[in-house]
């Protein structure tokens, strides 16, 4: 007799989570602070005209998935580690608090649980540590894992439009979801993807994932969904 909740009987065997503004609400201010730091980086290190920075930052984000990806596509030379250190270095991490409800819930669920973020590994580690969730996930798919260019070349991911050393793979591209499935060895048809972004959700659906949008803009309060994951699994 199969055990209830065993891998043989579960409808979903993996839960794939975006991190920022998904595991915690946007109202904590990290998103806003990050955008301001990116704008400061553009002014200070790339010498972009101050009046052009806000709209350029947003336009590149919308077109390329992240502002950094857009800047590199335009030909700006940016050191990845220096960029991430600058834009994440002064974020208000103190607003993040241990989420013991979410921690208990995640640890009680038998499915594989993986983070899928455009951020770098240092930022991901800091966020998860502040929330006391660092041991709740078996792995983190992040900037470094998505942009492992030796892996990219071996899998023939590069489409020839840009040098692999400057081309950035990130959500919401279909390629990023395909890469995540390969990296984590997951079946999209048996995986639920949680994210706060409509466009990320749309691409995830196109890639074959089941999806749940987590947004403070929805009718239900943010915590009502993220703290009731088990209800999502039976819908």
From TrEMBL:
Pfam families according to UniProt: Hydrolase
Keywords, ordered alphabetically: Hydrolase
Single GO MF descriptor: hydrolase activity
Domain of life: Eukaryota
Signal peptide (from-to): none
The keyword Flavoprotein belongs to this UniProt entry's keyword annotation: no
Descriptive protein name: Haloacid dehalogenase-like hydrolase (HAD) superfamily protein
């Amino acid at each position: 007799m199969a055990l209830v909740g065993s891998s043989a009987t579960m409808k979903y065997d993996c839960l794939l989570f975006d991190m920022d503004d998904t595991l915690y609400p946007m109202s904590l201010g990290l998103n806003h602070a990050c955008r301001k730091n990116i704008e400061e980086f553009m002014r200070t290190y790339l010498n972009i005209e101050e009046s052009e920075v806000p709209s350029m930052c947003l336009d590149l984000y919308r077109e390329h998935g992240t502002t950094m990806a857009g800047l590199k596509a335009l030909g700006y030379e940016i050191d990845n580690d220096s960029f991430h250190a600058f834009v994440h270095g002064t974020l208000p991490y103190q607003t993040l608090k241990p989420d013991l409800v979410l921690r208990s819930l995640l640890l009680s669920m038998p499915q594989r649980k993986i983070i899928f973020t455009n951020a770098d590994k240092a930022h991901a580690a800091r966020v998860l540590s502040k929330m006391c969730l660092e041991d709740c996930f078996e792995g983190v798919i992040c900037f470094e894992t998505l942009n492992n260019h030796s892996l990219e070349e071996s899998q023939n991911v590069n489409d020839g439009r840009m040098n692999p050393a400057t081309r950035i793979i990130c959500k919401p591209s279909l390629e990023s979801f395909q890469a995540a499935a390969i990296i984590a060895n997951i079946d999209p048809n048996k995986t639920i993807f949680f994210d706060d972004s409509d466009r990320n959700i749309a691409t995830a659906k196109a890639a074959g994932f089941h999806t749940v949008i987590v947004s403070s803009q929805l009718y239900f309060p943010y915590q009502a969904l993220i703290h009731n994951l088990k209800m999502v699994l039976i819908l």
